[in-house]
Structures are given as structure tokens and as C-alpha cells.
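User: Hey, quick favor. My workstation is busy. Could you predict this chain's structure for me?
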Amino acid sequence: VQLVESGGGLVQPGGSLRLSCVASGFTFTFSDYTMNWFRQAPGKERELVAGISNVGATTTYVDSVKGRFTISADNAKNTVYLQMNSLKPEDTAVYYCNTVRAWRNYWGQGTQVTVSS
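Assistant: No problem, here it is.
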């Protein structure tokens, strides 16, 4: 399993970014999956930001991003997205894509998101 993130960058407060995570090694269409976005800011622990599962078509968000971030999946592209709107300086972090397959954690390399004026 490989996860490759993209879409990070520098954005002003109030701006938007869309992160992408392309998964390989398994197929969304023929698998039960849960895909997550985590983030880690300097000096802080890694935290779960959002998750999506095709079992029950469920999504979950940390309270601090509810109403601003949206996680979605495109089964045809084996890709998970994180649409981030109304970004705040406290959203600055490295964002990681994550999944668990056969009881093993897989992580992408991370993409930096910086929110600053």
C-alpha cells in the first residue's frame, strides 16, 4: 500500500486549499476502507482531522474543523480529498493521509499547509 499526498501550500487566513491522497495497492471499489487525514503542528502530537469509510458511508471530523473542512472519496480515482475552507493560522501543520490494511498502519509522506498573512 502506498499513499501519496499533494495540494499543500501557503494560503492567507480565510483562504481555501484542497488536499489529495492517491492510494495504491488496494482498490476502493472492491474493498472496505477507512481513509483518514491527520495533521501534526510543530511541537504538537499528531491528531486525527477527518475520516471517511465506505462501510456505512460515514465521515468524522475533529470539532475544530467541523463546518470548514470536508472529506470525500472518488472510488474511480482511488483518491481521497480534504477540502479546507476558512483556513486559520492554527490549521498550519503537516497533513498526512492514513489507512489501515490487514491491521497495519500506512502513512503518506505528508504535505505542508501554512496559513499566514
